[in-house]
Amino acid sequence: MIGYDKIMSLHQNLVIKVRSHLSHLVNKRAIASPLKTQLPSPMPSGNILTTTDIINLIVGGIDKTTLETELTASNWISTPARGGSKSGSGTIWTSPNNQSSVRIMTKPDGSSYARVYNGPGGGAPGEQPLKTFGQPGTRVETHFILLP
């Protein structure tokens, strides 16, 4: 049986490869972009404003330090997150307008993952974690493995 972490890693790698391939085809004008607003794009520091921006950065491939640097430059507010023996320690980043949040956790093995939420509490009651296209999703769909 394949473990949860392995499935998450395979899922994230597949999403990155598919998006990279789509981006390549769109850039070559081989296909029209059905996901034009969802494809990852370079973003200068200080411009992360929406959950879509965050999801695009994460799915496009980003490490924890770079993501936190971008969030800081964009005036997101950090607070310590409670973690467990499996999830490890982490931080909840809340958007300047209090509309969304990102929970970034570092597991005891040193790997990190992020979850994006449709509220300011990083998974507080009533908030839903978001999947790749910004809709609420399952646990597997909403845990994004960050690059080492």
What would you note in describing this structure?
The chain is built from four helices and six strands. The protein has helices at residues 4-27, 51-60, 64-73, 139-142, and strands at 77-81, 89-94, 101-106, 112-117, 129-130, 144-145. Strands 1, 2, 3, 4, 5 and 6 form a six-stranded antiparallel β-sheet that branches. A hairpin with a 6-residue loop joins strand 2 and strand 3. The radius of gyration is 15 Å and the shape is globular.
Outline the fold blueprint:
Blueprint: H1 4-27, H2 51-60, H3 64-73, E1 77-81, E2 89-94, E3 101-106, E4 112-117, E5 129-130, H4 139-142, E6 144-145
Antiparallel strand pairs: 1-2, 2-3, 3-4, 4-5, 4-6
Shape: globular
- Poorly predicted regions are 21-42
- Biggest sheet character: 6 strands, antiparallel
Q: Would you tell me the overall average pLDDT? A: 80
Give a brief description.
The chain has 148 residues and is α+β, with helices and mostly antiparallel strands. The protein has 4 helices and 6 strands; from the N terminus they run αααβββββαβ.
Overview features:
18% strand; 6 strands; 148 residues; six-stranded antiparallel β-sheet; alpha+beta; single chain
